[in-house]
Design a protein that fits this description.
The protein is mainly alpha-helical and 99 residues long. The longest helix is centred in the N-terminal third of the chain and has 22 residues. The chain starts with 11 loop residues before the first helix and ends with a helix.
Amino acid sequence: MAVAVAGAGRTAGNAKTTNRRINLLRYIIIIRISPVSVEDSSVVVCLCNAIREKDLRDTVRNGGGHNTCSAYAALGRRTRCGQCIPFAQSIIKSELATA
């Protein structure tokens, strides 16, 4: 006799799709909750922490960090899911190169 187990048919592809949906929902929530004026608009670097590119660049320019962990700590946050790390590293690298 076969017994059906809930979630047993999930694959890695389904988990990735679920993660994408969760990240999209986070993005929608942040956009709707965070009032942003036209002058203050900036690319969102980290959806989990609602860190904008402008804030990250300002932190690095002011000596707040030389890598992702130290820059996030200077902003009072920490990395969570990690999907933002490559983008954050490229921003930090470009700011350190122009300093």
